[in-house]
Design goal:
- The protein is an alpha/beta fold.
- The protein has ten helices and nine strands.
- The strands form three sheets. It has a five-stranded parallel beta sheet. It has a two-stranded antiparallel ribbon with strand order 3-4. Strands 8-9 form a two-stranded antiparallel ribbon.
- Helix 3 packs across helix 5.
- The radius of gyration is 23 Å and the shape is elongated.
- The two termini are 44 Å apart.
- Pfam families: tRNA_m1G_MT.
- It comes from Actinomadura rubrisoli.
- InterPro entries: Alpha/beta_knot_MTases, tRNA_m1G_MeTrfase_C_sf, tRNA_m1G_MeTrfase_TrmD, tRNA_m1G_MTases_N, tRNA_MeTrfase_TRMD/TRM10.
């Protein structure tokens, strides 16, 4: 996969040299190019922003350097999928990460200040797909942090990046993974640490009992931390035991409607 990232802070992306993504780059699984937007400015101050039309606080990123940057990185005929992080965009989800992981080429545009002049995205849409994407209902100082999050979420899905490909299938929010329940608690050696033992069922070797325990814990954690996800579960996917676990966790379920 090819990734192009345009930013006024290229040094922000040093983390892409380490851990799984760094290894993926060295192995040729990720071809990452980080571009300094100021390289497409033409004044001695390398200006990338100006005051907003209509008044108001803050500054807006100018269209001219962005237009030249996109023309250079994706000339006519080249069609990456362009992603613009913004609080006003569509939510970034695991399903969207999976969708992006299937793309051969992603181009990230890191906005700053009050954002990028809206004409940049409008013009880009005439020659490439453009997505405005949000990490959540909060505001960051710029798009760089959001891009790092998205690149890691997407990059780890690429074949060969994770040592164990099955890890992806068990992720929280993975499409088809336990109806998007959160993952339950995990444990490793030693069996007892600071007088806290690993649950006996995980040491039992009984695969059916372990699977049941893991589902129960996933239901409990999801009911506690993300009740809206439980509310969206398909009733046909819940058996009587599931309903009992949810009731014990304090989640109000209607047995008549949800049991199959």
């Amino acid at each position: 996969m090819k990734l192009d990232i345009v930013t006024i802070f290229p040094e922000y992306f040093a983390p892409l040299e380490v851990s799984l993504l760094g290894k993926a780059r060295r192995n040729g699984l990720l071809d990452v190019h980080v571009h300094d937007l100021r390289d497409w400015t033409h004044d001695r101050h390398r200006t990338v922003d100006d005051t907003p039309y209509g008044g108001g606080p803050g500054m807006v990123m100018k269209p001219e350097p962005w237009g030249e940057a996109l023309d250079t990185i994706a000339p006519p005929g080249a069609t990456p999928r362009m992603i613009v992080p913004t609080p006003s965009g569509r939510p970034f989800t695991q399903a969207l990460a999976v969708e992006y992981a299937a793309e051969p080429w992603l181009l990230f545009a890191c906005g700053r200040y009050e954002g990028i002049d809206s004409r940049v995205a409008d013009e880009a849409r005439t020659r490439m797909p453009v997505d405005e994407v949000s990490l959540g209902d909060f505001v960051l100082a710029g798009g760089e942090v959001a891009v790092l999050v998205m690149v890691e979420a997407v990059g780890r899905l690429l074949p060969g990046v994770l040592g164990n490909a099955d890890s992806v299938a068990d992720d929280s929010f993975a499409p088809g993974a336990m109806e998007s329940l959160l993952e339950g608690p995990v444990y490793t050696k030693p069996p007892t640490w600071r007088e806290r033992p690993v649950p006996d069922v995980l040491l039992s070797g009984h695969h059916g009992a372990i699977a049941r325990w893991r589902r129960d814990e996933a239901l409990r954690r999801t009911a506690r931390n993300r009740p809206e996800l439980v509310a969206r579960l398909d009733p046909a996917s819940l058996d009587k035991h599931d309903l009992d676990v949810l009731r014990e966790a304090g989640f109000p379920v209607d047995g008549e409607d949800m049991a199959h």
